[in-house]
Specification:
Length: 154
């Protein structure tokens, strides 16, 4: 079959402020900031946002060919103040694989990160037995997830 999806290049998240979000993704989540573009006006038509002026920061995701773009719209302002609940239509989340969910949660809590509950879910049966996961929010309320994966189901 011609014309098939062959991989993922990047995911993008609209943020309120790169100044606030870059330290979260770099210092708390440990992603590598590889590029920060200056503000641009030239993408408004392609994005379908009239009058758009935006700037982008790009992060490498460890052990992945994909990257993460943070996009700050300088104009027009965002129509909402905080991210959507996970059951909102069109809502997405990004799941980061970790090697020790308990220690990462402890470090993130000490840094002020809010998790959706106080302890992670530990799957005890089925093909994902042994996996551990929990949701949290970035500074703008975007849904994120940590997953500690066993060798099963990989």
């Amino acid at each position: 079959m011609n014309g098939k999806i062959i991989g993922i290049v990047h995911s993008g998240i609209t943020v309120k402020s790169l100044e606030a979000s870059i330290p979260f993704y770099r210092d708390i989540l440990g992603l590598e900031l590889v590029k920060r573009e200056p503000p641009r006006d030239s993408r408004a038509e392609k994005l379908g946002v009239p009058g758009a002026r935006l700037q982008i920061a790009v992060f490498n995701i460890p052990n992945s060919d994909g990257s993460l773009e943070l996009i700050e719209y300088l104009n027009p302002p965002a129509p909402n103040e905080y991210g959507a609940t996970v059951n909102s239509l069109g809502c997405v989340h990004i799941a980061f694989q970790v090697d020790d969910i308990a220690s990462i949660m402890e470090r993130m809590i000490a840094a002020g990160v809010k998790f959706t509950c106080n302890e992670y879910e530990h799957i005890t049966d089925g093909p994902l037995a042994g996996w551990k996961w929990i949701y949290f929010k970035d500074p703008d309320g975007t849904n994120m997830e940590l997953i500690e994966v066993t060798n099963q189901f990989q």
